[in-house]
């Protein structure tokens, strides 16, 4: 990557910025200040197209003592406040990376990035691409051939171009075209994905010009036909007005009459959440969305930083131009900037708090986003139970969870991303994939083995969703290790004469690299602190990782897809910590070449035993569409959990108060009449001393 | 298995029994009637020890037309009402199997079962074994050597003996002994599992005599020492009085002000549940607990019968007597008889209905069990969502689920077993393992690779939990097939020049057998009806199976454990349907030899392609105890899901009404003040026409 350094101009002025904490996201003043400083190194009429204006997180070596001071109430050491900026000179390919130091008002670094390094998209740009594509004379001429009905409305979804090494050095977008319902073209929310068109313009983004118009194969093979008149197809709508809605669903409300159990302490734009012995700081940025810092349980440190690092969605159709459809939704667009506004009562149920964010627009101005994260409790069923069969006395507690949730819309797809905490020291990251499949046209009577017909004329191609969760542990200290346990059957011997014995053995991982799950051995990865021992059984304190299995990226190892999605070939990567190594697919994913992500860092073969390590947990699904996934798919749910192992001295949820009717206020539903009894009717007797009320008979 | 047939006595009288449906569980009259008929073939003073008195389900060939008549409102054909009975002549080993025909008042079959075929335990027997063990003079003498403090109370947990082929033809129980807290011996609910003793009496159950007193190895090897004075150990209590309970958990109530959305139509002791287009009949019996019959969605048939078939829990310690610890909790004891009474407000949250059951005691008398199944709805987060980024309009629905839940206590362990239904045609079976680890004594300073020390002096040995769910499909008809899909990368070629293409191919399973998952190929099993095609894409209607991976049984293939747990070596078994093949581990599991379960049936290599098939889905965990699992473990959750694939013509949850604040009534929690706003404050604006209220900004 060649760079061209522009000397930094002298500071214009030093402004005192108002961040409350070194890890707090940039506030509006800081965004504006950083943008101004960047502009100040250029001639004054230069139109700067800002792509990223985000906190440049301080070095961990500075943050650790800062957090120690914070937790022990000492004065906070000084840490320079820095901003990471990506920008173009507007309407050119001159792409830059800058570091702005707000504390001393300087631009510390300002380099032009070289060939094949491109920026993410941004909202205004996506709209401009769509407009340019549809205004292009060549595209209009091609659309003419479709002989669309009067008043038909064509929609263009710009897609990242992908990479295949074929004349792809320029920054381009591949637009996929769709039709709004021809019988209802004024319905702005018509599901155009159910009416895909066989024409796909390609634009270069420096000049917003259509450089090529691809025609899409619509049969079973590579054949591209001349654009023919469009054959009428019915639309397939998801909006509620188009449905015969169910009328028999009764309301279900979640009430917390005494309020919620969590507290939120705001420090500027970051928030410290405390709940049931958990404490952590929530941040937010354009690329990762929610980030958790300084996660502790009962004031024992667990994680330095937790975030979704990226996701890759490669598609299975080998034909041009689909062969290069491979999205990196964080690096190519940004989870934070694509977050939904979670208005009360729709997305989150119960007693809800919301967090707002401030990001930046393409002019470097602050761009406020409200309600991007919702926080609430939920009941997750029974937490633990035991009944003594001799006495019939049951001890039972419910599992209350804390949920921090955001929802991102990436054109057609939605992802619901949540961190969840329970009362037994367990932390879970949950992803729900929903929204609309990416579609392309297919001729009638054609079936292909790389996709599913989900509507007349509509093919949904198979694709993989591969997520990478970046886990920067701080398990009772900065030096941790990654180990795995395996269970092995013992051979027959005098020691094991009946062939039933088995043992569990632990292997320590010494060197950075990629590692896989192996259920045939019950391989479980754990993050440990070997220097801190459980007081009862002497084992190192640890947290184990429960992640679901997934088929690794199917693109072959010589492919651009594989080289770019450096995380997608392993269940686990572990690297030695280095500042700035945040994104598993590399810093710049758009039309990337690979070589700058987690696989490359792991190839350093650094020592990771009793070191400052980072663990990257991959998980995902191979999405083979079924017709039930259209026109919008029911959520597909994936969870990664972190559970304590010999970290505590007993079940950490033992002190949760017993589950009792006086607290829970359940209601007996009378079968015959089907309406709820008034509160109190049909209740179990609660003992005078608040005894656990359940008994069992055997 | 040799049998001795006893000729059936002539009918004493014909009583008209009152069952409403051929699949309804036996009612009290029928249990009494069947028991009387069995007694009637013996001399009148014969003391019959009843072990099982349960519905002998009619042949499927009779039930299918019966259900068709039921669903089309025609008169129901006659089906003889039969009862399956197991019994001993009390205090002998003479174990019998009988079939009683209540419709004509005859005993149709009455055979004595041969060697190595033994009955399950029963509640009164377990208590008698415990008493006999503790009253035995030899046991008392051995306990004397412990020199326990004054007033100490010893508890005995009888365990199934297991099988190892070493002098194990008699029916025996292995008692594990524990101590109640010596400083609080009057606490009846003291956690004796935290104070295990090194003495283990073995009893034969025909005469309730101690035949052997095993001493347990407590070191790292096979060494058995003389019983030494007991060294004081602290107890580890789970009851709430012993905890410093949290005081900061605020109540969370689930309200359904208009009642629940499900209806329950009782027919005698069975119940027809209808909810959100689902309909099914719930039965209940001693061995399986809850059974679902005739499961339909929108009146399209899906499953003939669904039930937990058995579970096997083999332990890892190779030393005597632990090598033979391998429990079959359904066959050895019975899920139905061990179910908890789910009193309102403790186990299930919200608007709850309960189902009761009637089983039989060891005298053949009806034994009513109340509240064994709870039924309620729950909110499971967002069902689906899409936001049109151009307009900001979101369409979102919540996922409401119906839950049928029971909880069983098997001595120390609990299992929470639930069937869950959602609004997108998905059915899930969920198991939560909780309760108390099985423990044994260990010397200080000793570590072993087959267990974890969870408390001073307490070893919890590794063990596997392997469950088998019996799935008898009826997907749009009785003839179904089991197939699997795999995703394969395409090789490089002109067709796939960039190495990114992949295809999904389906393989049909022709012959019965065991089959495994393979995530490297994304192998997904589906139950299909090849004769019924999706109207849009022509694919056969199907339901796919999502089951988590698990390490197969580690006991080697020559071991008794392996031979007995016939289901535990494969993710999937598929067999051709035969009446009576219900239990994957065989009809009689207690001290069994194997050869009578699903592996043996599958070995027939019957045709299963477009046949009446049964699919057995195995799942489980290798439980490597951590200290957080003691003194009671936080629930470990396992789920198996069945999802429609090309069964519908679009997302079946599309017609769920939009998620709106007027329906959900969420409440904004004010961060600064931490109490809930009164209803209405902070609400999002809901459009006049009840429009979906959410918008998002990009």
UniProtKB/TrEMBL annotation, chains A, B:
GO biological process: amine metabolic process
Enzyme's top EC category: oxidoreductase
UniProt keyword Cell membrane present: no
Classification via Pfam families: Cu_amine_oxid, Cu_amine_oxidN2
Molecular function terms, GO-annotated: copper ion binding; primary methylamine oxidase activity; quinone binding
Matches recorded under PROSITE patterns: COPPER_AMINE_OXID_1
Matching InterPro entries: Cu_Am_ox_TPQ-bd, Cu_amine_oxidase, Cu_amine_oxidase_C, Cu_amine_oxidase_C_sf, Cu_amine_oxidase_N-reg, Cu_amine_oxidase_N2
The Copper amine oxidase catalytic domain, residue ranges: 252-654
Family: Belongs to the copper/topaquinone oxidase family.
Protein's recorded name: Amine oxidase
Organism, as annotated: Rhizodiscina lignyota
